[in-house]
Amino acid sequence: MRKSIVFLIAFFLGISLHANEIDAYLKSENKQFAVCSDEVFIRRLYISLTGRLPKTEKVVQFLNSKHDKKRQLLIDEVLDSDEYVSFMVLRWGDILRVKSEFPSNLWPNSVQAYNRWLWEEISKNTPYNTFVSNLLLCSGSNFRSPAVNVYRAVRNRTAEGFYQNISLLFLGSRKTLDDGHLFFSQLKFKSTKEWKEEIVYVDVHATPNVPKVQMFDGKELALPDDVDLRVPFVAWLTNKSNTRFSSVMVNRIWYWCIGKGIVQEPDDWGSHNLPSNARLLQFLTSKFVDSNFDVKAMFRLILNSSAFQSKNVADGLFVPDRLYAEVLIDALADITGISESYKSRVPEPFTFYPEGTRSMDLGDATVTSSALELFGRVSRDISLESQRSNKLTTRQLLYLTNSVELEERIRKSERLNQLSNANSTVDDLTNALFLMILSRYPTNEEKKIFTTYANTNSITHRNLCTEIVWTLINSTEFLYNH
What is the pLDDT of residues 342-381, one digit of tens each? Predict the structure, then answer.
């Protein structure tokens, strides 16, 4: 019984915040911004960093806290969580094309090993320059030295193909700017007797007949005989003096936090697409390099700023965006306590995933579901951030309002049964559902709407619970990270 959908409007309260270095910089440019309410902040932070809604207990605890640095403390807590690591593995998996089958053809064993390698590197907060060095200088079996899959995931397995992908990932360029491909001309592949195993190795004797290469920044790199030519290239790429390398990652982190890059698209750099605020990008890049490429430190700097916590959407501040497909599907699973079912067509004939598996943790674009596909799950066929479409479509809205499968999950949900039984009044039930789904308490007006609806329609308390859930999951406030 869904006679009407109530679309809710979030309220914003100005909260004082200790200014960090970004705020000091923005102030120097005569840009100061009111910050969002605690309710908006906690939801925004969790979705941006973990791809999950904050739990009700955490929301209540945070809203009730009087600590003057509670936002900074929460940022630190979330950055140190496993959920942060999982979401970063997903983000890197998207652009590194972690996928069992076409076009990457990494195969399941490689995908599992690659995701585990990413998890370990991100968990350790490996400095970004070291992370990239470990990735690009790896060799060996795709099962036992998983970082070699960065080369195996390239469809065009030539020196030019490798360098084109590396330029896109780490220099933000959609076309190569120099002859850096020569440093990857020694890469070779060979199969073993183990199913789908492949060895990536370097033939150091296959030296190009060129003494040196001039890189796009004017730096000349020699191509000596009988050495792994990737070594001098990676040393140049990750050097602190190569500001393009560090700026691209800073811009990517800004994009992940704010929703729009200072260079937008974040992987389309060049004279045709200049930074919207070159001084800000330079400022952040210098902080990143000074921190020895500390990724968490850069996240912390941005997340504590009024740019991320801004109340108003303007001047390149936080950009509301529809939830990632994985985030939305997992949120519905958390609300109902009933998850999607996932299976993979490889290895033959099928692999079925355990009940309760989160889409966030699948780690393989070959594994999917109809709902994930509907909401724009990334195919991982290309290494572009723009491959993810978060536009809200008519088909998605029809699913959220009329899906028989979703209706059955809500109706049969034991979690919602328990919540309904534990909150016997309309006010209590409304409070519980709003906290779980929207990370805030309902307003008096919203409570009045649902009280009037319950009295007018004479429905059971459990059916009212269903109606409120349908209303909230169809609201713009739920569907967007705002």
Answer: 877 666 546 778 888 999 999 999 998 899 999 999 999 9
The answer to whether residue 85 sits within a structural domain is no
Is the bond preceding 349 in cis, omega lying within 30 degrees of 0? Answer: yes
CB-count exposure of residue 105 (10 Å: 0-12, 13-18, 19+): middle
Tell me, yes or no, whether 307 and 352 share the same domain.
no
Per-residue burial over 366-403, b if 16 or more Cβ lie within 10 Å, else e, is bbbbebbebbbbbbbebbbbebbebeeeeebeebbeee
473 and 330 both lie in a single domain: yes
103 and 31 belong to one structural domain: no
Distance in angstroms (rounded) separating the CA atoms of residues 41 and 35:
9
Domain residues for the domain of 416 are 325-481
Whether 175 and 164 have beta carbons less than 8 Å apart is answered as yes
Q: What is the DSSP letter of 156?
A: S
Same-domain status, 46 and 101: no
pLDDT at 17 > cutoff 70: no
Smallest CA-to-CA distance from 48 within 228, 284, 280, 305 is with 305
> Hey, what are 424's tokens?
């016997």
Report the C-alpha gap between 425 and 435 in whole angstroms. 16
Of the candidate ranges 27-36, 96-105, 144-153, 299-308, the one whose mean pLDDT is the lowest: 27-36
Joined together, the tokens standing for residue 206 give 């296959």
Looking at residue 19, what is its pLDDT?
A: 39
- What domain count does the chain have? 3
DSSP code per residue over 317-385: ----EEPPHHHHHHHHHHHHS-PPP-EES-SSS-EEPPTT--GGG---TTSB-HHHHHTT----SS--G
Return the structure tokens found at 249: 């990652």
Residue 9 has pLDDT above 60, yes or no: no
Domain end position, chosen among 184, 208, 237: 237
364 and 473 both lie in a single domain: yes
pLDDT class for 7, splitting at 50, 70, 90? very low
Are 267 and 344 in the same domain? no
**Are 330 and 461 found together in one domain?**
yes
259 within a domain of the structure (yes/no): yes
Alpha-carbon distances, residue 324 vs 72, 87, 328, 389, 429 (angstroms): 25, 11, 6, 8, 28
pLDDT tens for residues 69-93? Answer: 999 999 999 999 999 999 999 999 9
Shared-domain flag, residues 352 and 474: yes
| Pair of tokens at residue 456 | 């007018």
Tell me, yes or no, whether 336 lies in a domain: yes
Query: Is residue 7 one of the residues assigned to a domain?
Result: no
Query: d(Cα 267, Cα 398) in Å, to the nearest integer?
Result: 33
SS3 249: helix
